[in-house]
Design goal:
2 domains; alpha+beta; about 35% strand
Length: about 200
């Protein structure tokens, strides 16, 4: 069965808890994060903690160790994670979130469609552009969760060069800068830092 992307609204900054649950369910996830290279006392503290973990303890998913370097994964949006699943998989996710709620742990819920009759499917094209921007957009990203309709108006463009090549979105002027704005419909919008006009082509179809 085809797998589709869905968004989960997360409560109380529990994105890593939900990421661990979805990982245990062997589901693909996407959590937009910034990786911060730890140094000094923070590096020593985390290094000691990681060294004391063995195969009987779950690794702390907030941290990634690559050789001698340790990175902290800091969520760009603390209230959002994405999951890719087929129909059976997304039903299982919903059941697990409801089970956690019954046990007094309010973790989150799956976004519904505009009519609230089914879970909202995120088109692959929107997800691909969102991932490009949040993975390679660098510093200066801005996120918006309200009045998303306004962000899907204006000239639609495609990035034709640079690290964001292939991303599609809308051109908006924010604080006088030309910025590429990518919208995951009904969920969130993200704006890049300044992007030169020469790197864009207008989508006419």
């Amino acid at each position: 069965m085809d797998k589709k992307w869905y968004a989960i609204k997360v409560f109380f900054n529990k994105v890593f808890k939900i990421e661990d649950i979805l990982s245990d369910m062997e589901l693909e996830t996407y959590l937009p994060v910034q990786r911060v290279n730890l140094k000094g006392q923070e590096f020593l503290k985390v290094s000691r903690m990681l060294s004391m973990m063995d195969e009987n303890h779950r690794k702390d998913s907030r941290y990634v160790q690559e050789g001698p370097v340790i990175y902290e994964r800091k969520p760009l949006v603390t209230s959002l994670i994405f999951v890719r699943a087929d129909d059976a998989g997304i039903h299982a996710v919903d059941a697990r979130l409801k089970e956690e709620l019954q046990m007094g742990r309010m973790l989150g819920f799956i976004y519904k469609s505009a009519d609230f009759k089914k879970w909202a499917v995120i088109p692959d094209s929107q997800m691909d552009s969102f991932r490009l921007l949040t993975q390679h957009g660098g510093n200066g990203l801005s996120f918006f969760t309200n009045d998303l309709v306004q962000f899907m108006q204006g000239d639609k463009v495609r990035v034709i060069e640079g690290p964001l090549k292939g991303a599609e979105g809308y051109i908006k002027r924010i604080k006088k800068d030309r910025r590429l704005l990518v919208c995951v419909e009904g969920v969130i919008a993200v704006a890049s830092s300044y992007i030169p006009e020469r790197m864009l082509e207008k989508i006419t179809s």
